[in-house]
Amino acid sequence: MLTREQCRAGRAMLDWSRGDLARESGLSERTITDFERGAREPHDNNKRAMSSAMEAAGLEFIPANGGGAGIRFRENPSADSTLVAP
């Protein structure tokens, strides 16, 4: 499940404001602000909306499976197909 650190990092990676994420996820900017500040924990469906919006923009969330949770850009398989072998 999305952490507040992943939310902040994801927005930074996408160069999105809180307003951008609010628009893309269909949530209020206040919900995102409160979540990132740790003021309140949103419902799971709101966390899913935030992560889904960022995933649709090209991010991949990495679960904390023995290490820390993370986030990265999803590999773009179509970019690999443009490479020409020597």
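That was protein one. Protein two is written in the same sequence-then-structure order:
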Amino acid sequence: MTHSANHTQKPRRAHRGPARHIGRTLALVLPVMLVLSGTLAVTSVNWSGNSSDSMLTASAGDLSVPAKSRAPQDVLRDRLLLELQEKNPGVALTHLQKEVDRHPSLARHCASIARALGRAAVRAYGPTRAQSYARPVCDTSYAMGVAAHQNG
């Protein structure tokens, strides 16, 4: 007795290997990652258009509390700008030179701090009086800050 040759077999299912598993995982994880990265990108953009505004972040929390760790050059710049307002640009420039001498790692930031002092001096004292405080601290960066703010 022979069996008929038209015996139908059930079709076999496709092999479920690692590639299929990875594909399913990516299909679930990728949209979540795209949403998260897009949200972070949108919250870190400075939408005000003013470069002097501080950048907002999604985890800003209480903005009235100062940041716990700031770069030493930022702390120094802020302190010297306050000193410029309370005393005069000459005192601030002298203290800038002393701090750079005491902490050589600040030397690379000296020019930008001196330019910021020059711009602030023009706002506080006017261009002529601000220029009278110029001295060769960080080359001529203070004078360049005065001139840039005076002309711009």
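Residues 18-44 form the longest helix (27 residues). Keep this in mind for the problem set.
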